[in-house]
Amino acid sequence: MFENTGAVSFTLYGVFIVITLIALVISFYLILKGSIDPVKLDKMIDLFKYSVVSVAIATVTLIVSDLFKEREQDVKELDYFDKYVDDVKKADGIVERYKLSEYLAIVAPSGELKRSWVNYHKITQVEYDEFLKEQKEKARLDTIKNPTKEEIQQKAQLIEKIELKNSPLVSSSATTINPRVYIQIANESQRADAGKLQTVLNNDNFITPGIENVGKNPGIMIPNMTEVRYYRDEELPLALRLIADLKTMNLGLKINEAPQRVPGNGRGTRPGHYEIWFSKP
User: Fold this and answer.
1) 212 - beta bridge partners?
2) N or C, fewer C-beta in 10 Å, the chain?
3) Which residue pairs from 24-31 have beta carbons closer than 8 angstroms and sit at least 24 positions apart in sequence?
4) Radius of gyration of the chain (CA)
5) Distances in Å between the alpha carbon of 119 and those of 4, 39, 90, 112, 124?
6) For the whole prediction, is pTM greater than 0.85?
7) pLDDT in tens, 137-169
8) Contact, 281 vs 187, CB < 8 A?
C-alpha cells in the first residue's frame, strides 16, 4: 500500500476530513447545548474555516507532489525496462530465464514492475524445478542399455519437454537458432556411419545431441528407406539440405529424397527440430 504514493495521499486526505468533520459536529453540539459563549461563536466559525481551508490546501499540495513522484517512478521503471529488454529477449532457456528473473526481481525498483518480476520468478521457479527433475530422469534412462518400449516413449516425452523449456522466449522461427538433428539408427553396425554423419552436420552448423539405437525396440517402426523428418512447413528447405548431405556422403544407404513432414506442428519441440532415421541394414 505504502509503495503507492497516490493511495497514501488520499488515505491521509480522508483521515484529515474525518477529523475535521468530527470536530465540527462536536463544536455544533456544544453550541446547541449552550456550552459555548455566543461571543466566541465568531471566533469558532473563523477557526472552522481556517481548519477546512488548511486541510484542503495541505492535501492538494500533498497529492500534486505525490503525483510528480509517481511520474518520476514510472520514468525510472521505463528506463529500467529499456536497459534490460535485450537481456530478456536473449534468455532462450529456462535456466537463463530463471536466473534473469531472480536477478531482476531483486534489483527492480519498488512498484508494479518489481511485483511483476517477483511473480514471474515464482513461475520460472516451478518450471526450473521441473526441468531439473526431467533432466535427472532422462540421465537415468540414458544409462539403460536395453530400454523397454515404455521407457523409450518416456524418454522421447522427456526430450520434448526439455526441448520446450529450452526453446527461445521470443523467436518463433528456426532460422534464428541453430537447427538440431537427432540421429536414429536401426542397428549398432550403423553407429560408425552415423558418427561420420554427425561430424558433417556439426561442421554444417547443425546441432546433433546424440545417436540413438531405436532398432532394439520391436515397437518402433523402422522406415524402409533412410529418411529425414521435420515438423514445420517453413523448415522444409533445411530438411532438403539434410537429404543432400546424406547423398553426398555416399554411405550406401537407400535414401528417401522426399522429407517426411510429421503432423502436429512440432508436438512441443523447439523450432528447428529434425530427425534422421536410418533404414534397416
Assistant:
1) 184
2) N
3) 24/48
4) 35
5) 18, 64, 20, 11, 9
6) no
7) 888 888 887 777 677 778 777 877 787 777 666
8) yes
Using pLDDT thresholds of 50, 70 and 90, give the confidence band for residue 173: very low
**Confidence (pLDDT) at 69:** 61
Q: Which tens digit of pLDDT belongs to each residue from 187-244?
A: 999 999 999 998 888 888 888 888 888 887 777 888 999 999 998 888 898 999 899 8
Sequence-distant contacts of 196-205: CB under 8 A, at least 24 apart? 196/249, 196/251, 197/245, 197/246, 197/249, 197/251, 197/276, 200/245, 200/249, 201/242, 201/245, 204/241, 204/245, 205/178, 205/179
- Cell numbers 545417436 label which residue? 211
Closest by Cα among 151, 123, 228, 117 to 183: 228
**Degrees to nearest 5, angle at CA 31 with 30 and 33:** 65
- Per DSSP, the three-state class of 130 is helix
Q: Tell me which residue has cell 561420420.
A: 196
Task: Starting at the earlier edge strand, list the strands of the sheet with 227-230.
Answer: 211-213, 180-185, 273-277, 227-230, 260-261
Phi-psi region of 180 (alpha: psi -120 to 50; beta: other; left: phi over 0): beta
Find out whether 187 and 217 touch, Cβ atoms under 8 Å.
no
DSSP 162-173: HHHHTS-SS---
State the cell numbers at 66. 505525490
**Residue among 191, 183, 187, 154 nearest 245 (CA):** 183
pLDDT tens by residue, 69-113: 656 655 555 555 555 555 555 666 788 888 877 877 787 767 666
CA-CA-CA-CA torsion for 125, 91, 120, 99, nearest 10 degrees? Answer: 50
- Please state the φ and ψ torsions of residue 175, each to the nearest 5 degrees: -75, -15
Q: What are the residues whose beta carbons fall under 8 Å from the beta carbon of 190, sequence distance 6 or more?
A: 278, 281
